[in-house]
Amino acid sequence: MDPLFLTLQEVAHLLRRRTKTLANAVNPRNDRLEFTDGSSIATIKLGRARLVPRSALEQFLRERGLTLDAPQIAAATQTPAAVSPVDAVPPPKPRGRPREAVGHNRVGGL
Length: 110
Description:
Residues 77-110 are annotated as: Disordered. This protein is an alpha+beta fold. The protein is built from 4 helices and 6 strands; from the N terminus they run βααβββββαα.
């Protein structure tokens, strides 16, 4: 089932832009993503999330002679649980000075 709304992160993935770039392009007064060429895409705010209607994104792309395929949407809306373990983030590096495994090096100690 195709989603009715896409998050800014999903739209950024489809447009090959950074999420922060799109977040900065949102005009909160008229709830639109505004681009430097004067074009815009309608958005809605649901709680703290900014969502883009799929139909508005498709219309924006159609005006430019582009299409939005189902596999592209599926790749953009991929859930974190569906990410393979190979793509998982490595564990953080240990911080600080390493501790000795046995005792302390004090003179006259126990």
